[in-house]
Amino acid sequence: MRAVTWQGRHKISVETVPDPEIVNPRDAIIRVTSTAICGSDLHLYDGYIPGMRAGDIVGHEFMGEVVETGAASTLQRGQRVVVPFTISCGQCFFCEKQQYSACDNSNPSETRDASELMMGHAMGGAFGYAHLTGGYAGGQAEYVRIPYSDVGPVVIPDDLADDDVLFLSDILPTGWQAAVNADIEPGDTVAVWGCGPVGLFTIQSALLLGAGRVIAIDHFPTRLALAKKYGAEILDYTKVDVREALAEMTGGIGPDACIDCVGMESHGFTVDNILDQVKVKLLSSTERIHALRQAILACRKGGRLSIPGVYGGFADKFPLGQLMEKGLTVKSGQTHVQRYSGDLLEMIQAGKFDTVSLISHHASLEDAADMYRHWHDEQNLYTKIVLKPGLAKGAVSARQEMEHA
Ligand SMILES: NC(=O)c1ccc[n+]([C@@H]2O[C@H](COP(=O)([O-])OP(=O)(O)OC[C@H]3O[C@@H](n4cnc5c(N)ncnc54)[C@H](O)[C@@H]3O)[C@@H](O)[C@H]2O)c1
Ligand SMILES: [Zn+2]
Ligand SMILES: [Zn+2]
């Protein structure tokens, strides 16, 4: 089969690789019909996630048709399913608590030690996301093996198109969990850093959960326009001092909840961000945390901080005193996708989310290398890319042409 592979920093290639096979009775194999590139894939592309090996198949946002099932799978051939990026056994201590991304069984033992050494405990498994999370082949491919297929996949009714539901695999539940973790009270003012796909779903979720106002921060006009369309007031961090603007907009108090949808590759030319860039180059830090620092300083006293943005290790000049003195509550984590996906599917069916208008491009799987480059270099125009294994190379369509594809 054809699959998108990571070959090194800024090196992606589409290769012919062996087809996946059923390994365990609970496995299923799906034929991928749609798969998206995520902001998390950028961290791999930029070489910031440890534990990648040349040739690894990437991709963790995908859906498709069940083509093969193991003896203990509950899926049936021909069903359309969206697959959560988190691989979860459904039976361990963590899965029973619905903390699916912390599953204790899905990270195979050969990679557990390194993960445990770095994080204190082994992380759960995830598709296409380095050997510290299990080294599973990802979903930017024609076929994928789905472990624990009786737990994760969401069966999709025929009347919903791929684009309507694909993001149940990650960014929609991630935005939802980000807003849930902000413990929003009715009428709250919520500030969201980053208007990438995760930020855009966080904005929609915060409003659905009762926020009175959402203020979204980024600098790409197209992304800010989408944030506005979804109901946020917007701030361009290249044009205003974000902390001052937030204070002004909230009568000096600051937002009740602040959500970091940026993660470890914060942009910008502030002094702290330039220092972070130098430290990352010198390997004395693994993160650029400018947005997170700003969120902590901007948040109201006694407010809440939610961090869906991915961080990989150890940060420098983390405002710990400010966090503590202001009495902020922090919640974070990889998303417990399986916990939310059923409810979110019903909310999509009820028309509560716009899951489609953030997609800027559809392209063939064969064009993945170009698409990663665009996703990295042209974030203003490329707001979300969906790859289609069935399309011929060069079959790229941009937003206007594919609105109802
Ligand atoms: N917790 C999870 O399970 C989970 C799941 C999916 C993605 N993520 C993470 O969420 C983050 C966002 O993902 P995405 O797909 O939206 O990524 P993305 O790269 O498309 O979006 C990030 C956005 O942040 C903006 N940004 C950068 N610096 C900023 C700053 N200083 N202030 C305000 N905005 C700034 C960028 O302009 C960009 O639009 C990533 O770190 C990703 O890895 C986490
Ligand atoms: Zn993702
Ligand atoms: Zn488990």
Protein described:
29% of the residues lie in helices and 21% in strands. Helix 11 (320-325) links the parallel strand 15 and strand 16. It is of the alpha/beta class. The protein starts with a strand and ends with a helix. Strands 3, 5, 6, 9, 10, 17, 18 and 19 form an 8-stranded mixed β-sheet that branches. It folds into 2 domains: 2-170 and 336-402, Quinone Oxidoreductase, Chain A, domain 1, CATH 3.90.180.10; 171-332, Rossmann fold, CATH 3.40.50. It is built from 14 helices and 19 strands. Helix 5 (171-180) packs across helix 6 (197-208), helix 5 (171-180) packs across helix 12 (337-349) and helix 8 (242-249) runs parallel beside helix 10. It is globular and about 60 Å long. Nicotinamide-adenine-dinucleotide (NAD) is lined by residues 38-40, 42-43, 170-171, 174, 193-199, 217-220, 223, 237, 261-263, 266-268, 290-291, 308-310, 334-335, 379.
Topology:
Blueprint: E1 2-8, E2 11-16, E3 28-36, H1 39-45, E4 56-57, E5 61-69, E6 80-83, E7 86-87, H2 93-96, H3 109-119, E8 125-126, E9 143-146, E10 154-155, H4 162-165, H5 171-180, E11 189-193, H6 197-208, E12 213-218, H7 221-229, E13 233-236, H8 242-249, E14 257-260, H9 271-281, H10 290-298, E15 304-307, H11 320-325, E16 329-332, H12 337-349, E17 361-364, H13 368-377, E18 385-388, E19 397-398, H14 399-402
Parallel strand pairs: 11-12, 11-14, 12-13, 14-15, 15-16, 17-18
Antiparallel strand pairs: 1-2, 1-4, 3-5, 3-9, 3-18, 5-6, 6-10, 7-8, 17-19
